[in-house]
Queue: 3 jobs
Job 1
Amino acid sequence: MGTMSKTCEPDLYIYCEDLLAKKLLKKILPLELRKRVYISEIGGKSEFRKVYDYHQKTMAKMKCIFIWDGDVDNKEIETQFEDINFNYCFLHPSGTPEFNILQTLKQDGIEKLTQKLGCSSSEETNDFIKKLLTLADHHDFIYEASQSMNLSEEEVCNYFLDCYKEIAASQFENLVRLINSCLSLQNNEFLTEHNR
């Protein structure tokens, strides 16, 4: 960790909402960036301010960036953070990662996912994705898929994220660039764009 500082401390702390976001970030970040960052899921968008306050009290000299899911609007961020400057961006420009993953795979990844999941046909996979898209809470799709496919949640998550990364890698170029930019900021400097 910490290639610039040559210490055990990361050069940047990345805080994201949940385990799926953390796993996705680990898959999309190039190795040279992954070596320099520590990614932590915090349990939901309502926790960002608490984590920010804790980070400021305990690690104020360490850089951090908050990565919100795309379903958070600017008003929510302003309500939590009032007039505080901090580094943040979005995992997706809009919507939850779960919905974006399912929608992208439905449109462009049926063949890849059919092979990964061992489904008998593309039609079966397509019907399965459509069913997952009807869930009241898209956050439940990994659990529901694991139950339907008789696979562990870890296996299902990896299959879906691997397919998604192959298909949607270009969607994350701006996010990776912003994280890289955050690494080069001085402690009292902040990102001026937020990939939305």
Job 2
Amino acid sequence: MMQRLWCLLSVLMLLLMPPAFAENAPNADDVQGRLDAIVSEMAYVRFCKRTTCRYKDIEVNLISTNDPDIPYKATIDAIMDRPSTMVDKAHYMLEFQDDRWHLIGGEELSDVSSFVFAGDEYEVFSSYSGRTRISHLSNADSTLRVGYRDLYYLIMNEGEERV
């Protein structure tokens, strides 16, 4: 009788145990490795017809947080090597949530335009027209040659890490 009671109590404890005890926090080395894999794919992206239009000097910053839902955040900064009178720059923000990296937003600055991205939405200010345009990447035609678009659709799956 005592063995049955002990067995029953053990099963109940396992069933009622909070899931936080069963789940492990993601390992920082694994998370960094997955982020590095995204960055290494960025090195192959070409965002204009010239073969030299690519990311270079890519820097990654991994930040651990106290938020159990988003244990890590990251930033990616890079120079965008393309024909320009000044150095074009990119800055992207990612969050690690639900065991995947998510592209949250970013910005790209060049001598003729500045883009701000939030998920699928983008805002562009053009120095040629002096106007601002707001739209979604899904509505943009193929002439929108920004690195964020390739990162969002080609490297990631609509901003979510491919695993």
Job 3
Amino acid sequence: MKTLRKSQYLWLKMLNEHRKSPEKTITISDEEYEELITLGKHIDIYNETEEEHDYSDTLTNNQVEGSYTGNEVVIVNLEESSNDTKTYEFTKVSDTSINMTVPEIGTGGMMTIPSFQVNGITITKDVNNIKGNITMYEGVINGEDDSTKTYVISDLIAIFNDNMVAITYSMRYGNMPFVMKITFIGTRK
């Protein structure tokens, strides 16, 4: 059994519900909503009549750019592989695009994946959240021994709100037989 802070669980639950549903709304209980507010986590609850708007032309660097430190959970083959404090970096490329630098994944040794980039994440603003997503991104990591390994990131969703970010994505690295499911919840420094 693993322990998550209640705020982490609620963010992950919200992201998971958002990924499963094509709808623009997410339903959470009154208790979950109050817990999020109490913990200082803000979440938008959309009325059925509200429409999602793209305000990407009003985005500014200080809304997404920076270093976010928090908890990263990596699931491999339905088992938790690591649960560590990490720092993710975001740089703004344009009004509608950001790049993300992911720190090394793992706890050292042969199973460690070096730091890597995910470029061209599309961002949109909707009410108080900024949402980032990319369906698929493929890159190459150069190892210390001059070897290279490809990685594929898929189904990445990032939600920025105030000074927080919640991210989920899948990753296939090199010849690994399993896809890694990664979640990260962090606060901007």
